[in-house]
Amino acid sequence: MADEGKKPKKRATIFGYPISIFFIVVNEFCERFSYYGMRGQRAPTASVLVQEDMHWGTVAQTIVYLSIVYTAGQVVMAVSAIHDITDHNKDGVPDNMTFHVALSMVGLFLIALGTGGIKPCVAAFGGDQFEDHQEKQRGTFFSIFYLSINAGSLLSTIITPFLRAQECGIHTKRECYPLAFGVPAALMVVALLVFIVGNRMYIKTDPKGNIMLEVCKCIWFAIKNRFRHRSSTFPKREHWMDWADEKYDKLLIAQVKMVVKVLFLYIPLPMFWALFDQQGSRWTLQATTMDGDFGFMTIMPDQMQTVNPILILALVPIVDSCIYPLIAKCKLNFTPLKRMTVGMMLAALAFVIAAVVQIEIDTTLPKFPSGEAAQVKYINMIDGLTDINAGGGETISIGSFKSTGEYLTFDKPFDLYVSSGNSTATITGVELQDGQRQTSIIFKMEDTAANITTNTFLDLSAKPEQGNNAIRFVNGYHGDLNVTVGEETFPYIEYMNMSEYKLLPKGLAEFRIQSRVGEVCTFTQEFGMGSSYTMVIPSNLLEGICKGIGAVKDIDPNTVHMAWQIPQYFFMTAGEVVFSVTGLEFSYSQAPSNMKSVLQAGWLFTVAVGNIIVLVIAEGAQLPDQWAEYILFASLLVAVCFIFSFMAYFYTYVDPTEIEARFANMESEERKKSMEVEMMQRKDSVKSDGEEKKSRRESSSSSSDEEQTKQDEDDKQTKI
Question: How high is the pLDDT of residue 237?
Answer without folding.
Answer: 81
